[in-house]
Amino acid sequence: MDYFNELNAKEIVKELDKYIIGQDNAKKMVAIALRNRMRRMNVEGDIRDEIIPSNIIMIGPTGVGKTEIARRLAKLVKAPFVKVEATKFTEVGYVGKDVESIIRDLVNISYSMVEKEMAKEVSKAAEKAAEEKILDAILPGNEKAEKETVEKFRNMLERGVLEDREIEVEVMEQSGPKIDIMGIGGMEAFEGIQDMFQNIAPKKKKKKKMKVKHARQIIIENETIKRIDREIVNEKAKERAEQNGIVFIDEIDKVVTTGKYEGVDVSRGGVQRDLLPIVEGTTVTTKYGAVKTDYILFIAAGAFSSVNISDLMPEFQGRFPVRSELNSLTGEEFFRILTEPDNAITKQYQALIKTEGIEVEFDDEALKLIAEKAYSANQKIEDIGARRLRTVITKVLEDIMYNAPDIENKKIVIDKNFVEKSLGNIFEDKDLERYIL
Ligand SMILES: Nc1ncnc2c1ncn2[C@@H]1O[C@H](COP(=O)(O)OP(=O)(O)OP(=O)(O)O)[C@@H](O)[C@H]1O
Ligand SMILES: [Mg+2]
């Protein structure tokens, strides 16, 4: 299976570099862990079953790129990947999602991945069969025997001259309204029942007249579905989730209860306890069958500002042997964040303003000043990391954003002077600063 061998560790880091400035250690750890998944799949013999993933925990102050790394990773990996916030879950019996839904989501994702791949595999055959079906529908019954006529029509079809011809197509119709069972707290188990309802609700086949060009897609879909073996998809999906699945648990520090809150906050401490078996390796029942969690890679992240990593349950800590600390960002890194990433916030604003015909350019001096101001605001007020850049930039661009339609000058260069003027005296007045940024 070649998709496992997509990117090596260095290439993963290189991809992450496009979006995340600094945090080299975290990027490297994550890349190694991902690469190890791929390596493991290529290990032969029994030893493979002995190799369990080394789960990672990323620790670092707020706004330095933990979640961003996860977001970028999700787009990068070809493996089933889910990202969840630990705070969304509560102990079984309390209002909130139960932790097993993480695994159910993972298998769902895995299922649609496998389904897509298999659909691609049969696509040529399905397309071919669809053309035959269309030909059949176009040709009146008695002419079908005539080989020459068939070929003539096939040729016309290929040339695209029959696209507006009306034919009859069989379409599936879901009868009755979709039964919607609300995901009430802790009731995700009903998910299965909901699916069951949809499956037993009789699907009516209905004939419908439409033009060839509209019918083609429907027929191809029908032909694709026919060629995909649900049971194989099911098995593969389960196996891929088990062997290659990655679960990112964000905000893990938010479910830590230090001794003094015990009792008051049962549901939070309970989340850790509930997560533990999943992380340690257990079996979760899903609509695709029982799924083992032993080989799933878990990456957790948290700011751990008011609690310590040692406040996590010891067993829990033990299951996250790889620790990666993210650093607080420097002024220079702020400057790079403003300029380098493909999706840099400056580029985002430029694109926004351009929709009204105004080109905004930032000169380096201006960007340096913005980075400095953001850094010093973090020092003076509260360190919110790179998120501060957004508050400062928004302030700098406020007038342009407000007056855009009336601005005569269609090309504005934002220089040091502009930044100083737009931020005005915010930085001289601590209260003002606190209030505005
Ligand atoms: N190292 C970085 N490189 C580029 N952009 C960054 C970096 N760190 C943070 N950012 C930007 O700041 C925003 C906030 O970062 P992110 O969501 O990753 O914070 P976090 O570390 O998860 O913080 P928290 O602990 O509060 O969840 C991101 O959307 C991203 O645009
Ligand atoms: Mg975060």
How many β-strand stretches?
11
**Domains (count):** 3
The termini sit apart by 51 Å
Widest sheet, order of strands: 2-5-8-1-9
Largest sheet: 5 strands, parallel
CATH class of the largest domain: Alpha Beta
How large, in whole angstroms, is the Cα Rg?
Answer: 28 Å
- Overall geometric form: flat
- Assign the CATH superfamily of the largest domain: P-loop containing nucleotide triphosphate hydrolases
Low-pLDDT residue intervals, each spanning 5 or more residues: 178-189
Question: Order of SSEs, N→C?
Answer: HHHEHEHHEHEHHEHEEEHEHHEHHEHH
Task: Give structural attributes.
single chain, 437 residues, alpha/beta, Rossmann fold, five-stranded parallel beta sheet, two-stranded antiparallel ribbon, 17 helices, 11 strands, 13% strand, flat, binds magnesium ion
Would you mind describing this structure in some detail?
This protein has 437 residues and is of the alpha/beta class. It folds into three domains: 2-107 and 246-325, 3-Layer(aba) Sandwich (Rossmann fold); 114-237, no CATH class; 331-436, Orthogonal Bundle (Helicase, Ruva Protein, domain 3). It has 17 helices and eleven strands. The strands form four sheets. It has a five-stranded parallel beta sheet with strand order 2-5-8-1-9, with helices on both faces. Strands 3-4 form a two-stranded antiparallel sheet. A hairpin with a 2-residue loop joins strand 6 and strand 7 (289-292). Helix 5 (100-138) crosses helix 8 (212-227), helix 12 (331-339) crosses helix 14 (364-380) and helix 14 (364-380) packs across helix 15 (387-403). The longest helix is centred in the N-terminal third of the chain and has 39 residues, at 100-138. Adenosine-5'-triphosphate binds next to helix 4.
